[in-house]
Design brief:
Helix content: over 70%
Distance between the termini: 82 Å
Number of strands: 0
Oligomer: single chain
Strand content: under 5%
Length: 113
């Protein structure tokens, strides 16, 4: 018998995680979401709880759950960090250009009057 090393398990779980995320975004949802859930469930079953993909997989599984009975008290730290890192580069442009955010300017103008 061949023993599977922890590095091999993490390697496979990482691939499963990435495939699950890709499938989560594809259409048609009716066929792709169950496949995404299956990949993410394999991640949760294979890797240690302390690995970042464990909590991330649980998070994505909760967002895709049919009926919405699984409740998480917060988003995983790694998800928040990744979201912020991605969004931070676009924040000013989105706020000022696309949303036409002018509150600070309007307040300053009111105070100067």
């Amino acid at each position: 018998t061949t023993e599977t090393s922890s590095d091999d398990i993490i390697f496979v779980a990482t691939r499963e995680y990435r495939i699950g995320l890709m499938l989560r975004k594809l259409q048609p949802v009716e066929t792709c979401r169950p496949k995404a859930r299956a990949h993410l469930q394999r991640v949760v079953a294979k890797i240690p709880r302390e690995h970042q993909y464990f909590s991330l997989s649980q998070f994505w599984l909760a967002t895709m759950e049919e009926g919405g009975t699984q409740v998480l008290d917060r988003c995983p730290k790694d998800y928040v960090i990744g979201l912020y890192a991605t969004f931070a580069q676009k924040f000013d442009s989105l706020l000022l250009d696309k949303l036409s955010y002018k509150t600070p300017t309007l307040l300053r103008n009111l105070l100067e009057q």
